[in-house]
Amino acid sequence: MRPLTILRPEAGEDWAVDDEWEEDRLPGQLAKPFLLTEPLPGRIGASTSELTGGTLMLAEEGCGIYFRMVLNGPREGEIWRIDPDWGGFVPVSACFRTWYTEWLQ
User: Computed from CA positions of residues 74, 82, 3, 49, in that sequence, does the dihedral angle turn out positive or negative?
Assistant: First the structure.
C-alpha cells in the first residue's frame, strides 16, 4: 500500500512508484474524469498518464503494475489494475473494502 499524504521515507531513489505517486498529486489530476467505461485488456499503446486521471494509486504490484481506485464517473469506487505491458487496465474489485480485505489476506 502507498501512503496517502506523504511520500515514502526512501523516496528519491529513482523508483517508478514515486513518480506515479507524485503524478497523482499534480493539481487537478485526481479531479479529472476517469475516461474508461469498459476494461482495456492487453498491451496499452497510449501513455498510461492519459488513462489514470481521476484515479488514485493504492498499491504497487511490481514491474510497473499498480492498483488504482476510480474517484470519478460511473465507475467511481471500483479498483482497477493497470499493467501497461501485458494485462491492460481492468477492474479487479467493485469496491475498496472488498479489494483491501482480499489484499490483507
Answer: negative
* Sign, Cα dihedral of 14, 7, 23, 99: positive
Question: pLDDT tens across 20-43, in order?
Answer: 767 777 788 889 999 999 999 999
Question: Which of 91, 68, 73 has the alpha carbon at shortest distance from 33?
Answer: 73
φ, ψ at 55 (rounded to 5°): -130, 160
CA separation for the pair 49, 56 (Å, rounded): 12
- The DSSP call for residue 32 is S
The three grid cell numbers given for residue 35, joined into one nine-digit string: 475516461
**Cα separation of 49 and 11, whole Å?**
20
